[in-house]
C-alpha cells in the first residue's frame, strides 16, 4: 500500500523548483519551499516573508488592526497575536512578547501532554470512579441490611429474654394457684367430714327432747362450741402484679447504640495552619503526644524535643547512650519510645527515667510504631544488610515476625544504604511500611499476609515515587510523604490513589503523624519545620 505522506508529497511540490520534499512554507506569500529555495525566496526584499515549518502552515493570523500585515508575535500581557506595527506601538511596547511559532509549538506540546494525561490517566480514573458509584450505592444498601439484621437480632434477643421472664412469672402464678386450691381442698374435706356429725347431733338432740329418760339427758355433752367455728379455716393474701413504668431510655440502652453517619471530603487545596521551627540540622520524625504537643527527632544532636503549637520548646531529653535516635513513637499511655540503631536498643522515656525495653542481637532497629492494642511494631535490618523484617513486641516479648510473602520471597527490600522504612498501623489493623528502596508502600494484614503494594498513581514511573514517612488517619486512609517531589500521597485502605497534598508550601516532607482530629503534622527535612495541615473539610 502506498504511504499517504509520499502520495501527498508527489502532488504538492516546491513552488520554485518542484522538489517533492516540502519542509517549509511562506505564510505570507502562501508558497511551499524546499530547504534549498528558502534563501532564494527570502532574497526578494520587495515583499515581507514569514517562513514556517510546512506542518505549521496557515497558523499565522492577519492582524485585526492592520489586515494586510501578518502577526509574528504573541503579546503575553494581552494574550493576543500582534504584527510588527502593533509591537512597535505604544499599546504593546512595554508588554512581554514571544515568537508566535515558538509559543504555538509550546502550546501544542502542552496540549499533547494534557491529552495524554486525560486519555491515559485522568479519564480512566474518572471512568473507574463512575463505575464504582453503583457499587457504592449497593454497598450502602448492604451495610443498611447488615445494620438492620443486627438490630433485628438484638430485638429478638430482648423479646426472648422478656418472654422468658413473663413465662417465669406465669409459672409462679400457676404455682400459687395450686397452693391456693390445695388449701381450699383441705377446707372442703374438713367441712364435708363435719357436716354428717352436725346432722347426727341434730337428730340426737331431737330424741333427747322427746325422752323422759333422766340418765340419757344427764349424759349429754354440748358440742356447740366445737361446731361454731368452721373447720380448717385459713387466710390468704392474693398475689398482685405491679407493672413498672416503661422507661424508653433504659430500653434503648439495653438494645444498644447506633453511631452517627460521618462523611468527610478531602480539601481540593489543603491549608497550612501552623508553622513550627525546630532546632535540628535536618528534621526526620514527628509524633503527636496530644493535639497540641509534638515530639520530634532529627540530625545534629542526641536530643529528643517536645514542642507545643506555638513553637515553644517544652522539654528536651538526651538519649541514654548519647547516640542520635533513629526513630520515635508515642505509646498509647503517653510515653515516648525511641530506637537507638548504634547500640541496637529500643528505649522508653517515662518521666525523667529512660528504661531499655529491648536489646537486639544481629539486627538494628529502623523505625517504630505504637499500635492500638499497646504493642510495639519495629522495622529492623540484619547487621549484614541482607534481611529486613517487621517485629511485633508486647512489652519486651516478641509476638510476631513479618518477613516473607506466600511464595517465600522477601516482603521488604534489604539495602544497607537506603534502609529507610517507616511504618504505621492502620485503623483496620493493617501494617503499612514505606519502603524507600522499593519505591513502594507495602501493606500486610495483621496476620502478616501481603494485601497490596502501592507504587504511585497509574502511569507513575517507578523511579519518580520515593516514599519516606507514613501515617494513617481515622478514615483508614494511608498518607505517605514523597520527599523528592515535595508532596504527600493519600491512598485508601485498599491502595486506591485518592489525591496529592501539594502546591501548598510543602518542602521536602519527611516524617508524618495525624492527631485525634485528623490534622496532619509534617516534618520538613531541610527547613527543619513542623507544619500542621488541614486536608479534610
Can you describe this structure?
This protein is of the alpha+beta class and 537 residues long. The protein has 3 domains: 4-105, Classic Zinc Finger (Double Stranded RNA Binding Domain, 2-Layer Sandwich), CATH 3.30.160; 106-255; 266-536, TolB, C-terminal domain (Neuraminidase), CATH 2.120.10.30. The chain is built from 7 helices and 30 strands. The protein has helices at 4-11, 35-42, 84-88, 100-210, 214-219, 224-228, 248-255, and strands spanning 24-26, 31-33, 51-53, 73-75, 80-82, 97-99, 266-277, 282-288, 293-299, 303-308, 313-318, 327-330, 336-340, 345-350, 353-359, 363-370, 376-382, 388-394, 397-402, 421-425, 431-435, 440-444, 450-454, 467-472, 478-482, 487-491, 497-501, 509-514, 520-524, 529-536. The strands form 8 sheets. The protein has a 4-stranded antiparallel sheet with strand order 7-30-29-28, with no helix packed on it. The longest helix has 111 residues, at 100-210. Residues 1-9 have low confidence and may be disordered.
Strand count = 30
As for the CATH topology of the largest domain, it is: Neuraminidase
Structural class: alpha+beta
Number of alpha- plus pi-helical segments: 7
Global outline: elongated
Strand order of the largest sheet: 7-30-29-28
Gyration radius over CA = 46 Å
> What proportion of the residues form beta strands (DSSP E)?
25-35%
